User: Fold these one by one.
Assistant:
Number 1:
Amino acid sequence: MAFGVYQARRNLPNPLVAGPGEAVLNPWLIIAGDGRITIITPRAEMGQGVQTTLAALVAEELDADWQQITALHGPAAQVYYNGVLIGLGLPFRDYALKRWQARVQKATDFLPRMMGMQVTGGSTSMRDGFEKMRLAGATARETLKLAAAQRLGLPAETLHTESGRVIAPDGRSLSYGELAGEAAAIPPPDGVALRPPARWKYLGRAMPRTDMVAKCTGTAEFGIDIRLPGMKFATVRMNPARTGMKGFDATAAKAMPGVERIVDLGDGIAVVASNTWLAMQAADAVEIEWEPPAWPPDSAGLEAMITAALDDSPNSHLRDDGDAAGQLARPPAGARLVEAEYRVPWLAHATMEPMNATALLEGDRLTIWSPNQAPLIAREKAAATLDLDEENVTVNTTFLGGGFGRRGEFDFTVLAARVAAAMPGVPVKVTWSREEDMTHDFYRPAAAARMRGLVADGTALALEARVAAPSVSRQASMRLAGLAPPGPDKGHVEGIFDQPYAIPHYSVYGHLADLALPVGFWRSVANSFNGFFHECFIDELAHAAGRDPLQFRLDLIRPAHAPSAMLLERLREMAGWSGRTPEGVGRGVALTYSFGTPVAEVVELRDSPRGIRVHEAWITVDPGTALDPGIIRAQMESGLIFGLSAAIHGQITFAGGAAEQRNFPDYELLRMHTTPKIHVDILENNKGPDGNAIGGTGEPGTPPAMPAIANALFDLTGRRARRLPLAGDFDFAV
Amino acid sequence: MPTSLVVNGRRHETDLPPDMPLLWVLRDELGLPGTKYGCGVGACGACTVHVAGRAVRACQVALADVQGSVTTIEGLGTPERPAPIQEEWIRHQVAQCGYCQSGQIMQAAALLAENPTPDDDAIDTAMAGNLCRCGTYSRIRAAIHAAARRMQGG
């Protein structure tokens, strides 16, 4: 099977070209004569450590010396497609995945392959790369052994490899650098077996990150750092409503020294200048009259659309266990009805590096430098916009100063291409101001939920959830391909239809609000609101049932998914959870299963003279196989903090069709002194139906953070937090 | 306006508007991109550099107001010869996306120069203005403590 996958993949062209003294062994591997090994890690490095672990997968099987490795994004190419992207979007519940469902998921590999989906997203990089990257390393290793066998006149089976060398039984050895040229001419052997985890040297350990030294010395090149000979610096001002422009007056801007060009983009303007600051100053001086938005201009109007969707008939019903409707209509004697509504706001990604890209148009050839999560899509869209052949468009992916889903969009890349088209032969770097970035996001949608449940005899008998929000999947698909995906929208109800709870009557409806306001993939996507809805309501059910909220969950989770139950037990032990907290201390718990990985969190709040403080947090996570525990810990902390920032402070509001928050003073995040002490433990029980599952870790830390803090607030204050952000209703220390 | 500016020990003669922020002088005019643009309003700390040894937000310092020599992340250490604080950052594997880390390191270096043995409260106070969207705060704290111990010879 593994071999079959590799064979199929080999049919795709290898985009790598060997430089002087280099040999290309496959699309993931270049070995130089001096032994330097370049591993193409074709997923966007946006902080999640993906380059390090993808490189470790190759290095593990290759027996490469970690000190000799360089990891690069490499070119945009079909061979680097993400094979699991479509399969993982099928409406299965991962915690209860059947063997046939896992096979169906695998069988969809041809779709992203055909569509050339080189995409970093959905916490899929390890799930896609786990076998692929190890095969690339293992096959190259065997090819290097064949080359050494020829040189030494020995059978290849007698040779072994270690730290970048092939070693003969008599002690003679050849470096990979010496052998690479010959190895590249040998057809790679078939059916190379992968090593069992027990033999791993790099995998399963916290590896030094390949990008760490550069990022600690200011030498890592982000998109915003691109510098080319003769390059001009530009910025843009676009319509926040994404509609057109009635007109503009650039008289004052044109007169500013250093301003070289004002570009009329139709839906906005660009200023090209001799430095970025001049460009931004001049752009601010342009007077622009925008076309109005195609959606309600203010928050109240937008919220009303979401409420209307909730009142309307549902678009999906992806969980329907038992008869929740019947039970709720005629509750059995002794059962208690619990009802609650929840709301969460729009959110911005607010990556630390504002949107930017650089482009150079030379004749019919376009070269782009872009910190992006989907380079083939960026290429296709830039080519279409400038009416060029895709083959004539080159996309170089730089480091990303944060992504969180925002850089999966192609708008900023295409915009740079459009500005460059006005300056043929001149490279132009287009840097957005922070204000432009925050007001032209693809926002995490606002959402609302109507929850009803029944408790009896200390447990949950029924749960009915209705969730309303605009659809991220539909909008993204429309932008990408001009059509909405068929079938129910799983992406809208993930985090609530697929949770590992054995509630006998369990029903989840998705209601899509038809809103054109741009929404996009925000770290953990719909799990970011559904996790909040589900786990806050479970907490309400636990209290209505008179039970400890952790034990109440454990009793419902254990029959559904043993690894998730083990996570909660470990969490209880780590946090010393007793179900009782002293005056002035509140604790809350939550568990969300997302992207193949259950994560459980306890958040502890404490009253202080300056307001409520997030004092401590405990996280347990089970990705099945922990490829790099150091990076997984970092991602758990990162995910929790991302979730807490959103829960306490995050909200984008709208007035006049535009976001009212424009910069960090309006969009507060957790800081050093407001971040809790965090403890993480990693378990590896969640092995899936085939015993070899691997879950994502970039996103799953975020969803449970929001309900855990809301539940802790209830414990602290006795008041339920049913609306985010919490700082609106509770007094947090800042 | 002709201005003479010493950055990382090198003198630069510039002819730029006096109100141009030091951030953009460094990045676009002197080719030192290690100092990052994050907000332009002194609210994120990504552009932190040292002027006369003190940590400042380079986006808030006009070229004409630069009094003293400037040190940027590039002047602190290099990949081949990182400064001790950078070595601790590397040892603690602090960076994720890494975009804010130049500013974090420059802020922390200024703190340690002023207070060689900062406790958690002192670290909180000094680092409060430096945002990290990836949430690397706990490793930053650990790296600062380790760098402090190292400077004490411990």
Number 2:
Amino acid sequence: MANQANGEVLLEISGIHKRFGGLHALSDVALSINKGEIYGLIGPNGAGKTTLFNVLTGLYQPDEGKFTFKGIDLFRKKPNVVVESGIARTFQNIRLFHNMTALENVMVGRHVRTRANVLGAVFRDPKTRAEEAGIHERAQSLLDYVGIRKHGGEFAKNLSYGDQRRLEIARALATDPQLLALDEPAAGMNPKETDDLKKLMEKIRNDGVTILLIEHDVKLMMGLCDRIAVLDYGKKIAEGVPEEVKNNPRVIEAYLGASPD
Amino acid sequence: MLANIKQSKPAAYAGMAIFAVVLAVLPFVMGATLGNTWVRNLDLAMLYIMLALGLNIVVGYAGLLDLGYIAFYAVGAYVYALLNSPHLVPMLSGTGFEWLLHMPLLVVLPLAALLAGIFGVLLGSPTLKLRGDYLAIVTLGFGEIVRLFMNNLDRPINITNGPQGVNLIEPVSLFGHKFSQAITVFGIEFRSVHLYYYLFLALALLIIVVSIRLQSSRIGRAWVAIREDEIAAQAMGINTRNVKLLAFAMGASFGGVSGAMFASFQGFVSPESFILMESIVVLAMVVLGGMGHIPGVILGAILLFLTPEVLRDVVNPLQDKLIGERLVNPENLRMLLFGIALIFVMLVRPEGLWPSKQRKAEFHEDDDLKVKDAEKEAAHG
């Protein structure tokens, strides 16, 4: 994939620290994601990838640092504010609303872009009805977009594993994000499913959504990402295009251990 | 609740019409066959239906286990009682606030709902970070605190009249007619209990409609999302704090309406009516009937309210006839049956007697997994 990034910075963090008691989970992390790129985040287990993810999506409050998105300050903001400003996410261990249908899951994603309040819900005025119809239509088309429209009426928990991953992506897309953060979306998938997922991610990016991706599948990352950052022990040890990162001695050391000589 | 009957439209309308007629003549049939106590019981059952539907919003939809729900019933009851009885007259006379007393029903009811809703938010806000058992314990405490306030706010200034309660509460008066007096329309005599029945029925229907509409709205989906997975709900941009408080407020306001009606119906309120046991009974109605499912909750309310009344009517005559003396107190039997019923339901139908499709699925997750595993094996093998 050609680098479609136009150089405009979408998300920027610097000097991010996050401590859990004595554990320094993130230490002075800085990165910037450009509009339109697929930005990969890799690192050994426990490197702090998911912690960084949780910081970027507002689930964790960082201790120090700067965090701006589209120039808006998002440092220590609540998750709903982060989503509202245009960052949506999926979870490493799928977190769907299991006893809601696939369609309803995506409809929940529209919550942040809709306004109906209790009065609207009770009186069902034309505005609310139109909004509700819009939610329904959008949710249907998103199910279609990720390729699981025919499962719309099924409970989320009854979908196959790959479809659950897709549903999570559809639900995240329902919030109209400019940045979609995917936490190990290919985990547990077979090669065919991984390939389909790769195509889906490329489609999403081509439709103008920037993607931040954590993934263990290095082959997938190398073929998909425009730029990659590597975390180890809560520190960023490398950043660059896949080719650079792959040959970076510090990255090789982090993954394979130091060479004897 | 009638909407999901899968029939042709005319059949559905016919069904609804029959149902409406049954509801309309029910008090007269009951009065003629079982006596007027039963019409009274019917009225009280309506109040419990409203209560259970209110708690259903908090427990059934949003998944917040509230053991102090009866406090909002108390707030509604006391609001109505204080504003419609002579109790506050000496205190308010000459202060320029006399207009507060004897307001029309259409003002008092929304006021009771509003105040109960405000209490819902007040008592809900400290519990926002709590879940499950912890939430239950804290709400239980809040429920008791409200009752203790009612019990002790007779000094230094006598507001609630303490344990003696508030007496001489005026009955509802609508369109210039006092509900304490019978009225004759088309040669049919509508007594006080009948008038209350129709009023409570109308309010219960209103609450049912509001519940249904909330459930299938953006708000209702947000509640269920929080119940299903609070973190994921947050990550979808739901302001969980506000949405939870809204659930507390809506549930409480239903309780407030029911409480106000209770006060006018009884003519007397005291803190004794709002003990913990009442909270537990209402919760049992919701759980037994089917959490989050409106018809189920209504069924639960009717069953749990009417069982003790039936026992009272049946057990004593039966004992007299069979053994000639009264060995068992129906009141005690009620608790025994309650316990057995709850254990039975939890073992056999944990999703409740009449659950929603959703809840049923939830409680039979294992079965689904088994089916899924079997399917997987079939696919691979």
